Amino acid sequence: MPTTRRALAGTTLAVAGVGAALLTRRMTQTWGTAALEADQPLPGDDLVPSADVVATRAVGVRTPASAVWPWLLQLGYGRGGFYSYDRIERLMGLDIRSADRVVPEWQRLGPGDRVHLAEGFGLRVAALEPRRHLVLLGDEGGPDGAPPFDFSWAFVLCPWPGRSAGTRLLVRERYRSHGVAGRLVVEATQVASWVMSAAMLRGIRDRAEGRADRRGSGASPVR
């Protein structure tokens, strides 16, 4: 193959690779969202301004927001878990077992309270409006100190257009990196974030609809 043709072929493959990466990134960071949901302003956006990575994922739940809200209130390590892939989390050394019922003592949560992601590491409740939104903000480090990025995690309940009793659950992550090292850490977590968040959304949906998977995975395989 002449040099010019080889160069052209290489350039074409490189452009295709970049395009595929960007398409995949957009898909994983907007998983489950409907038109405009990924880009609309949500509660908590102002807590991490100028974010360099934003992921918004969503699921439709065929129940009122009042049936979804209790599952959000009991999120966390040592509480209701994260309704995701419990087995994977346990392989990572996290003793997380997602609840399949609403537990009354886990329903008390307010601004300033902590929601733990693991032992000794948690997020602070920065904003809470019952049956509308729960916003968590990272403001402390784990055993190895503070992470190299600012982070907010918002759970927002919205009406489901066209369904009188339906709810859209949107989950938004916002990251603002501290330098190159922070950005590399954030980018490295994005695929895992998508996998676990998608499972969590399905897990919350199934529990709110009364059809939670009870085989121990913490998430239904049905989207």
- Count of beta strands: 6
The Rg value, from CA coordinates, equals: 19 Å
Low-pLDDT residue intervals, each spanning 5 or more residues: 6-22, 214-223
Task: Work out the strand percent.
Answer: 15-25%
The spatial strand order of the largest sheet comes to: 1-6-5-4-3-2
Q: What's the shape?
A: globular
Helix content: 25-40%
Mean pLDDT: 84
How is the biggest beta sheet arranged?
A: 6 strands, antiparallel
Describe the structure.
This protein has 223 residues and is of the alpha+beta class. The chain contains 4 helices and 6 strands. It has a 6-stranded antiparallel sheet with strand order 1-6-5-4-3-2. A hairpin with a 2-residue loop joins strand 2 and strand 3. Helix 2 (65-73) crosses helix 4 (179-208). The longest helix has 30 residues, at 179-208. Mean pLDDT is 84; it is low at 6-22 and 214-223.
Question: In terms of topology, how is this protein built?
Answer:
Blueprint: H1 3-29, E1 53-61, H2 65-73, H3 86-91, E2 114-118, E3 121-129, E4 133-137, E5 149-159, E6 167-177, H4 179-208
Antiparallel strand pairs: 1-6, 2-3, 3-4, 4-5, 5-6
Helix pairs in contact: 2-4
Task: Give a short summary of the structure.
With 223 residues, the chain is α+β, with helices and mostly antiparallel strands. 32% of the residues lie in helices and 22% in strands.
Question: What labels describe this entry?
Answer:
223 residues, alpha+beta, six-stranded antiparallel beta sheet, 6 strands, 32% helix, 22% strand, disordered C terminus
